[in-house]
Amino acid sequence: MTVFLVGAGPGDPGLITARGRELIRACDVLVHDRLIADELVAEAPADAIRVGRERLGQDQISRLLVLYGRRGLDVVRLKGGDPFVFGRGGEEVLALAEAGVPFEVVPGVSSISAVPASAGIPITHRGVSSQVTIVSGHDPDALDWKALACTPGTIVFFMALGALGEIVARLVEHGRDPTMPAAVVASGTSADQRTVTASLAGIAHAAEQLAPPALVVIGEVVRISALLGSRCEMIPVHA
Amino acid sequence: MTVFLVGAGPGDPGLITARGRELIRACDVLVHDRLIADELVAEAPADAIRVGRERLGQDQISRLLVLYGRRGLDVVRLKGGDPFVFGRGGEEVLALAEAGVPFEVVPGVSSISAVPASAGIPITHRGVSSQVTIVSGHDPDALDWKALACTPGTIVFFMALGALGEIVARLVEHGRDPTMPAAVVASGTSADQRTVTASLAGIAHAAEQLAPPALVVIGEVVRISALLGSRCEMIPVHA
C-alpha cells in the first residue's frame, strides 16, 4: 500500500516508463491530470477507481491521495510530464509525508527536452549550447528579466503562450538579441502537435493561432531543426 | 529501416520508455553507451548485433549508425538519459540526415529531474523555485560565472564532480551565497546511488568520496529532502 507519483510523459502514450505502466496496470486507484492520454487511463484495471482532476483543486488532490493511501490501496497519481518539473509533485509528497503515508516517485519524460526534440530541436548541442534555463512563464512579474536576458544558452519557457508578447518585450528590453531564433511547440509529441519558428521579435505573432499546452524555446539550437529538414521523422513520435 | 535514437533513462532499467523497450526488443543492431544497465542490453534479440561504445569515438559512432542504417537494418542507438540533454544526439542525427538515413528520436527520462527526485529533491517547488538552470561542469572556463552566480532558482550541474571545488569557488566569488544548500547525487536511481548534502561552501569536501556519474544540485529545494525524511522511499526507484 503505497501512493506512486508517476510521470506520464509529455503526451505520446508510448513515452510512459516501463515501471509507470506496470504500476498503472496493477493499481486500485488512478488519480490523473486532465491532459493524460486516454490510452494510459485505459491501462488501469477495469475495476480501478478513476479520478480525473478537472474539478479538484491542488489541496483536494493531496487530501484524496492521503485518504486512499491510508485505506491501504495502491494509488497511482499520474501526472503530465515529470512530477517534479512544474508538476506540484513536491506539494503532494509533502502532504503524504506529513500524513505518514508511504510513497514513491517514478520520474517521467519531461517536456523540457522531449517537446523540443519532437520539433527537431536538441536543447543542448556541442558548440552551440551547453546551458539550458527552464522557467515558468505564467507570471512574468515574478521573473528576474535582467538575469534571464543575459543567461547564455537555450531558454525553455513552460506555460508561456498567454504572456508570450510580454515575455518577448521584456527579454528584448533587457538586452536579448531580437533576431535570435525561437520556436513554439504546441501539444508536443501528440498527434495534434504544431510547431512555429521565427525570430524572437516575431515569435508571438507567429504563434497567435496555437493553443496550450505549449513550450517556447529561445536560442541558436532552434536553427538545427532546419538542418534536419524533411528527413526528420520526429514529428510526432508515436507508440 | 530506421535508426532510432532512444533515451535509456538515468540508470534504473524500469525508467526506459515503453516505446524504447519495444524498439530494443525488435532491433537488428543495438549500439549502446557504457553506462546502460545490463538488463536493457539483454532485452535485444539474441541474434542482434551489439556494439558497446567504450572503444569508439563520437565520429566512429556516427559513421557506424550511417553504415548499419544504409544496410536497411533497424538500429537502436541507446543513450543514457535523454539523447538531447548533453547526449550529443544532435551530432548523430545530423550525420544521419546528411547521409539520407531515416531516423527517429525517442526521448528518455533525463537525469535533470529524475536524479534529484531519487534523493527526495524536487527541482521546482511552489514558493521555493520556479526556475532551473542546467549546465555542464566539465569545462569551468567555458561558463559565464557572473550570470550563473546571480541566476534565480535551482542550478543543476552535469559532469561536475571533477571540478566541484573550482565550481563552488567561482560561484561564491561571483556572489552566490555560500550557505545555500547543495547536494551531490552519484549513480542516481541505480542500486549504487549515494547522496550527500551540505552548504555550497562545504559540498566539495562532503562529496570527496563519490564517483561519477554524479549530478550537483544547488538551491533551496535541497532542503525539501529533509522534510520528506525517512518516509521517503525514493532512494532508489527500482523496476
Set down the secondary structure blueprint.
The structure is a homodimer of 239-residue chains.
Chain A: E1 3-7, H1 18-25, E2 29-32, H2 38-41, E3 49-52, H3 58-70, E4 75-79, H4 89-99, E5 103-106, H5 111-118, E6 131-136, H6 145-150, E7 154-158, H7 164-173, E8 181-186, E9 194-199, H8 203-206, E10 214-218, H9 224-228
Parallel strand pairs in A: 1-4, 1-5, 2-3, 2-4, 6-7
Antiparallel strand pairs in A: 7-10, 8-9, 8-10
Helix pairs in contact in A: 3-4
Describe the model.
The structure is a homodimer of 239-residue chains. With 239 residues, chain A is α/β, with parallel strands linked by helices. Chain A contains nine helices and ten strands. In chain A, the strands form two sheets. Chain A has a five-stranded parallel beta sheet, sandwiched between helices. In chain A, helix 2 (38-41) links the parallel strand 2 and strand 3.
Short characterization:
Chain A is 29% helix and 21% strand. Chain A is of the alpha/beta class and 239 residues long.
Instruction: Name the pair of protein chains with the most residues at their interface, and give those residue counts.
Output: A-B, 79 and 78 residues
Cα shape of chain A: elongated
Radius of gyration of chain A over alpha carbons?
Answer: 19 Å
Helicity level of chain A:
25-40%
β-strand percent of chain A reads 15-25%
Tally of individual helices of chain A: 9
Q: How far is the first residue's CA from the last residue's CA of chain A?
A: 31 Å
Q: Can you give keywords for this protein?
A:
21% strand, five-stranded mixed sheet, 239 residues, 29% helix, homodimer, alpha/beta
